[in-house]
Design brief:
It is built from 14 helices and twelve strands. The protein has 324 residues and is an alpha/beta fold.
C-alpha cells in the first residue's frame, strides 16, 4: 500500500470541499441499519470487506455490484426502492454533525473561504440538514450525487464542485473519510485530507494528509490566533440539569433550547452524565441525545460569560417547555 505523502496543505486554502456522510455528519450507524434491511430482503450476506466498499459510493452504483443483481434475482431498482423506503421510515435522530464541524465552518466564513459539499447523497438531503442546523449560509454550493454523470471514486464530483465555485483545483482542499472519496479528490487535483471518523489511518493511503479532527485541521489550514487549549480548559464550566419537559428534549423543547444556545454566542456542549459532549446548538444532537423527562443532562461552556449562560440554559431545560 502506498504511504501517505508528506506534503503541506495550502494555507489558507482558496476553498474547502467537504464530503457529507462520515465527514460533515456522522451517519454511518444509520446507513448500516438501512443496508442490513436491504441485505435481509435480497438474501445477501456481505463480509466486512464488502461492506466497507459501500462507503462513499452512489446507491445505484453500489447495487450493480450485488451478486443478487448480477444473477438477475433482483434489479438495481429493487435495491434502490428497498433502501429509500426504509430510509424514509427511520427518524433522523441518529444523524448528528461531526464534532468541530460548526466551529470549522464559522472559521472558514470569518476568513471568506468558500465551502462546497461534495457527496454521493442527493443535494436535497444535504440542503435539508444544513437548513435544520442553521448552516445554509456557511455552504456556498452543493454538488450532490445527482449532479455528476458518475460518482466517486471518479473525479467527476469534485470537478463539478470546482466548476460551481469557478476555481481551479490548485489551492483547494477536500476533506473525506473514505478511500473512495480521497481517490476522487486526488483525481481532480484537489489536496485531499483524510479525517479519522470511519476508517483507520492505514486505510487512508490516498490522502495527502490525515487528521484526527476538524480542530486539528483548523490549526493546520487557517492562519491566525486560536484559543489556547489550557486557557480554555481553566475557563470551562459544567452544569447538570434535569429535563422538565413532558416529552423530553424533543420537538418544541429541543427547538427552543437550540435557539437559546445560538443566541448565547458561545459554544455549548450537551451530554448525558459520563457521555461525550456534543454541539448543543445542533437540533440533530438534541434529538439523538433522546433525553426524557426526569433524566439528567450535562451542559458545558467556556469563557467569561459561561456561568450566566449555563444558568439560563439549566433553567430552560428544567422548565416544562411543552406547556410554556
Amino acid at each position: 500500500m502506498t504511504a501517505t505523502r508528506a506534503v503541506a496543505p495550502p494555507r489558507p486554502p482558496t476553498a474547502v470541499l467537504l464530503d457529507f456522510d462520515g465527514t460533515l455528519v456522522l451517519s454511518e450507524e444509520r446507513n448500516a441499519r438501512i443496508w442490513d434491511h436491504v441485505f435481509d430482503r435480497i438474501g445477501y450476506r456481505p463480509d466486512a470487506t464488502e461492506r466497507h466498499r459501500l462507503l462513499g459510493r452512489r446507491l445505484h452504483e453500489i447495487a450493480v455490484d450485488f451478486p443478487a443483481v448480477a444473477a438477475g434475482a433482483h434489479t438495481v431498482a429493487d435495491v434502490e426502492r428497498l433502501y429509500r423506503g426504509f430510509d424514509a421510515e427511520l427518524p433522523r435522530h441518529d444523524v448528528v454533525l461531526a464534532p468541530g464541524v460548526r466551529a470549522f465552518l464559522e472559521r472558514l466564513a470569518a476568513r471568506g473561504i468558500p465551502v462546497a459539499v461534495v457527496s454521493s447523497a442527493h443535494s436535497r438531503t444535504i440542503a435539508e440538514l444544513l437548513e435544520a442546523e442553521g448552516l445554509t449560509a456557511r455552504v456556498t454550493t452543493i454538488a450532490g450525487g445527482e449532479n455528476s454523470p458518475v460518482g466517486k471514486p471518479d473525479p467527476a464530483p469534485y470537478r463539478e464542485a470546482l466548476g460551481r465555485l469557478s476555481l481551479p483545483a490548485t489551492g483547494t482542499v477536500a476533506v473525506e473519510d473514505s478511500p473512495v472519496g480521497l481517490s476522487s479528490a486526488r483525481g481532480a487535483g484537489v489536496f485531499a485530507v483524510g479525517i479519522l471518523s470511519t476508517h483507520r489511518r492505514d486505510e487512508l493511503a490516498f490522502a495527502d494528509l490525515v487528521v484526527a479532527s476538524f480542530d486539528e485541521l483548523s490549526h493546520g489550514l487557517l492562519p491566525g490566533p486560536f484559543p489556547d487549549p489550557t486557557e480554555r480548559e481553566t475557563l470551562t464550566l459544567t452544569r447538570t440539569a434535569v429535563v422538565g419537559s413532558t416529552g423530553g428534549l424533543h420537538a418544541r423543547p429541543a427547538a427552543q433550547f437550540v435557539k437559546a444556545v445560538k443566541a448565547s454566542g458561545i459554544p455549548v456542549t450537551i451530554s448525558k452524565p459520563g457521555g461525550s459532549g456534543r454541539d448543543a446548538a445542533s437540533i440533530l444532537t438534541l434529538l439523538a441525545l433522546d433525553a426524557q423527562q426526569g433524566e439528567a443532562v450535562e451542559l458545558t461552556a467556556g469563557g467569561d460569560d459561561a456561568e450566566r449562560v449555563l444558568g439560563e440554559l439549566v433553567a430552560l431545560v428544567e422548565s416544562n417547555l411543552d406547556v410554556a
